[in-house]
Amino acid sequence: MHTAQPHRLRLVRDAKGTHRVQFYIGQRRYRYAHGKAIGCPLRPNTYPEPTRTDVATELLIAFKAALDRGWRPDQDERPVTLLELLTSYSPVPDHSEKYRRAMTITRDHFKAYLKQKGKLSLGLHQLTSSEVQDYLSCFLTPSTFNHERKRLSAILKPAYTAAGLPNPITLIPKRREKATLHKPIRDVAAVLEDIKDFNTNLHLCCLLTYGCLLRPHQEIRQLTWGDFDEQLTRISLYGSRNKSGRNRIVPIPQYVAITSKQYDFRCNAGHKKNCPRKELNCRCSLTNSPPRHEKCAPSHRTSFLARKHICPN
Fold it and tell me: For residue 195, which of 112, 185, 259, 269 sits 20 to 30 Å off, Cα-Cα?
C-alpha cells in the first residue's frame, strides 16, 4: 500500500528509441512501456516514428489520469507486515561478524518490543515515528541511542524503499553527544611502571598500544606468535584482524622489543620464545605462564595475552 504521492512523472526515451512513462513514489522508480497496468491498450513502441512519440504522449496523459484517480502500482498486493519484515531480515554476509551480531540483536529487541505492544501484525504503512521513538527511548545515552537508531534504520530501509514509503526513523533526530576532553598523560613512563608492577601481561599490552599503535580490544588481545617475524621487529595482521579491513604491517620499536624480551614468555604449548612450531605459522599465544594440561596443550590455539588456559577436553 502506497501512502506517498507520485512525483516526477515524465516521458523518457533510451538510446534505442524506446519510449517509457516514468515516475517515482517515495524513493522507488516505476517505468512502463505500455498501458496494460492501467487497462489502456496503447503500445507506443510498436509504432514507427514520428507516430511513436505522439502515442507515447497519449500514454503519458493516460497514466497521469490514472494516478490522479488514485491508482497505484502493486495496489492489489497484500501489504508486508512488520512480523514478515523482521522475520525475513538477515544481515549482509559481507559485513564483519561483530556488526552482523549487533544487527541481529537490534532486530530481536525491536521484534520483542512490537510483540509486547501487540503490533507485530501491523503493515509497514502503519508504523509511526512516535512508536519507534518510544522503543529508542529505553537507550539512555546519546551514543547508544544513535547506534541503535542507525542499525534499526538499516533494517527497515530496504523494505520501506521497495514499498515506496518514507522510513519513519528519518523523522527521529539524532541525539547530540557531548564531547569528552581526554588530557594527555604527562609521565607515560611512570604510568607504565605502575602497570608493570600490577600485571606484566597488561604492561606488554600497553607497550604495544603506545609503541605500535595497535588497538587493544581485538588486535593486541588476539595476537599470536605467528603474527611476529623472527627478529621481533614487525607485526603483520590480515585485514580480517583489524578494524580498517586492510592488511597491516606494523614496525615494533626497539624499546618495546627490548622490554618484551625481558619476560620469560611461554606459549600455551609450553614452548619458549624460540617456539619450534613458529616455522609452521605457530598460533600459540604469548602468555608468561606454563600450560595446565601438558598432554593436550600442543593442540591449543589461545590468544597472545590469554589470562586463562582452558582445556577443550
Answer: 269
**pLDDT surpasses 50 at 47:** yes
The grid cell for 76 is 492489489
Q: What residue numbers bound the domain in which 134 lies? A: 82-171
State how many domains the chain has: 3
- Per-residue pLDDT tens for 91-110? 888 888 888 999 999 999 99
Which set of grid coordinates corresponds to residue 242?
583489524
Q: Is residue 310 included in any domain, yes or no?
A: no
Global pTM reads 0.50
230 & 260 share domain: yes
Which helix H or strand E contains 248, and what residues bound it? strand 248-251
Residue 183 has pLDDT above 80, yes or no: yes
